[in-house]
Write a structure and sequence with these properties.
Layout: E1 2-5, H1 13-32, E2 37-40, H2 42-49, H3 57-67, H4 76-103, E3 116-117, E4 120-121, E5 128-129, E6 132-137, E7 140-143
Parallel strand pairs: 1-2
Antiparallel strand pairs: 3-4, 5-6, 6-7
Helix pairs in contact: 2-4, 3-4
Amino acid sequence: SAVAEIVFVNVNPQSTLLLGQARGAAIGALVAHGLPVHEYTALQVKQAVVGYGRAAKSQVQQMVQRLLALPGVPSTDAADALACAICHAHAATMSAAAVAGAAGLAKLPSGDGRATAGGRPTAEGRPTVGGRRIALRRGRLRLA
């Protein structure tokens, strides 16, 4: 599966447009290959990694270094990407625990990292953007 950070409108409209196009192309390619795409806000990522949603970039870098036992502090871009992955791993574990608790199951994530209920993947494994399911129909991306 893949993780993306939800971005907000930038001061420069040209930058925002280019970022949106790049994001759309990347998400489209992932979905076309059947990969689930999960999105998190910067606030959610910082909350999961640092414990404070309004943490500074330097705090995120330091926590990523500590959590992953890296030999040095990662660059801001690398730290952002790794923090998104950490956030998703945390969210998947918490979601699996909720599913397991609700179903009265003792096991947590399956070997592929997706939450299971009675051995079947839950809706978690389906690609979504902004909470809406993404489907590839007749070679075109559709939001459901």
